[in-house]
Amino acid sequence: MSLSPDLARLALQEQRLRFKHFDGDTAWTLGNRIKALADAAGTPVTVEIRVGGHTVFFMAMAGTQPANADWARRKRNTVELMHRSSYRVGLEFARDNNTLEALMGLPTRDYCAHGGAVPLHVEGTGVVGVVTVSGLPQRDDHEMAVAAIAELCSVPVAEVALG
């Protein structure tokens, strides 16, 4: 299976999904939009939003486990370091037959390249934070975060969704 189509789409997401600004109110709206998507899907998730190294939104829905918060932390650490979605990082490493640990010496206890953490880009500024979803299969975690970001950025999700 070729990873190229997904990798191209992930790069497109990071190009197109840009906020005009991002503050505490935006984080609250984004976090609650993800919760609404999870409620509609009937699946519990943990959501973490960090901006400038500070957690500005955190919610663990009933039915999640403490491990979901730990997965969120590890995925978020990867995005804060790489400024690319954790799913993209994971697929790039799979394509290259490599790992974060082997390439960069990063401990798997603190970093992972599994989908669900997405950088928060602000136009003219760059990456200001990370939104992370944990509790679903990694591709679904990623797609839930992207769907909510696309809505807030007024980008039709069909234009950036994975195939």
What does this structure look like?
The protein is α+β, with helices and mostly antiparallel strands. The protein contains 7 helices and 5 strands; from the N terminus they run αβαββαααββαα. It has one domain: Haem-degrading domain (Beta-Lactamase, 2-Layer Sandwich), CATH 3.30.450.150. Helix content is 51%, strand content 18%. It has a 5-stranded mixed beta sheet with strand order 1-4-5-2-3, sandwiched between helices. The longest helix has 18 residues, at 24-41. It starts with a helix and ends with a helix.
Shape: globular
Helix content: 40-55%
Strand segment count: 5
Major beta sheet, specifics?
5 strands, mixed
Search tags:
single chain, 163 residues, alpha+beta, Beta-Lactamase, five-stranded mixed β-sheet, 5 strands
